[in-house]
Design brief:
The protein is mostly helical. 67% of the residues lie in helices and 6% in strands. Helix 2 crosses helix 4 and helix 4 packs antiparallel against helix 5. The longest helix is centred in the middle third of the chain and has 29 residues. The chain is elongated and about 55 Å long. The model has no long low-confidence stretch (mean pLDDT 86).
């Protein structure tokens, strides 16, 4: 359906023309907590990412000093492992939650919505799993 504006018509998202009733049974607060998570994780991600970029790009020579040895020294510290792990997990969960909302808004078919969310969850688990594995099993003593 199109809405006329000054003699022209523009396509509107399907979700605006035929909004669906809220899903779920009863008194679920999932959407409220997902909304709150987005706000708090976004704030924390700003701190983590800006701190990461400042340390990587601005301090002590900037990008020129970034190499395998720098990463090895950084991940030798549990503090930096936890920093990077928190950044990875929050970014994945924050982005996945946002994409889940987009899927709910624009996927009209229940089966399509199910498969898109399944692919989303599987890819999130894979990225978080592999990333966590790399952070905690990184070996600076690689033999070539």
């Amino acid at each position: 359906m199109s809405a006329p504006v000054l003699g022209k018509s523009y396509d509107r998202p399907a979700s605006l023309d035929a909004p669906r009733a809220p899903r779920g049974g009863g008194n679920s607060n999932f959407e409220k907590y997902a909304w709150l998570f987005m706000r708090f994780s976004g704030l924390l991600l700003i701190v983590l990412v800006l701190g990461h970029m400042f340390i990587m790009l601005m301090i002590d020579g900037g990008v020129k000093r970034l190499n395998f040895g720098f990463v090895a020294g950084r991940w030798a510290s549990p503090f930096w492992q936890l920093w990077d792990l928190t950044m990875l997990w929050l970014a994945q969960l924050h982005g996945g939650n946002g994409l889940r909302t987009v899927i709910d808004d624009y996927a009209r078919n229940d089966q399509t919505r199910f498969w898109l969310k399944t692919i989303l969850v599987v890819s999130m688990i894979l990225v978080m799993g592999v990333g966590t594995y790399v952070i905690f099993t990184f070996d600076p003593n690689i033999t070539g």
